[in-house]
Amino acid sequence: MRIGLWIDEEGLRIDEVGAAAKAAEDSGIDRIWFSQRTGWDALTLVAGAAPYTSTIGFAVGVVPVYPRHPLALAAQALSVQALTGNRLLLGVGSSHPAIIEGMHGLPMDRPADYMREYVEALAGLLTGKPTDYQGGRITARGQLAITGAEAPQTIVAALGPRMLQLAGELTAGTITSWVGPELIESYIRPTIDKAAVGRPRPEVMATATVAVTSDPDATRSWIRDRFGAAGDMPAYRAVLDRGGVTGPEETAVLGDEATVAREIERFAAAGATEFILCPVGTPEEQQRTIRFAHDYAQQLT
What we know:
The protein is of the alpha/beta class. The protein has helices at residues 14-27, 42-49, 70-84, 97-100, 111-126, 161-170, 181-195, 216-227, 234-242, 257-270, 283-300; strands spanning 2-6, 31-34, 57-64, 88-93, 131-134, 139-142, 153-157, 173-176, 203-212, 253-255, 274-279.
């Protein structure tokens, strides 16, 4: 199983992000992950941070598809590929009504149907070949020619059955949020594998909030205060209910170094192909967690 590390870029300059990426590369971390939030554009951040490194992979988890036409996203992703020596993993997702409808003012009906058309159109455009896609809701015609760019591996953020089905049928796999190893083993892995019959086994990239801490209860409260609202978003609420937990804080990986290492091994045994640490807690706990991630990755190399 690969080890990924999410970098919280909020408030950081590009040289600080680059230094964090370089330290991760030096320790043997397989991939750096960025989120598309309300600050840095995540794909632009990959292009800016990559020159501080030489070999480590970069991933965006995830770009919301509704605000970006497939032609625009394909052009940006291929540009990043050319600039980074083809080190990008492209994650796409439908996002949530509070963001797409509330912030962007865009309709978000039948998201699984929209995502299927989007991924079909995007896949053709990323090859650089002429594309003439006409779906029920998406039209994409054209060709993108960017010298040196290879089509990036693409995954879909999928938690519901229909999203998992299309991720298994059409992409390299999925990235999960607020999902523990039990649910990966009993639901995520069998659902996406069933959809991918006849194709390579899909990736399951498991994201978890992680803190190496001596006070797990306090850290759970920290997570509840900052991420508790995620439990009110329909897609997250559904998967939390499926996992039998009340909120995001109950999916966190917390404890001393040995405890966190054991939990990561449980994700691997459940069928995760990459474990992505998202350091949380106090600044001291986050730094301790990052040091642990570096040390753990070093042991695996």
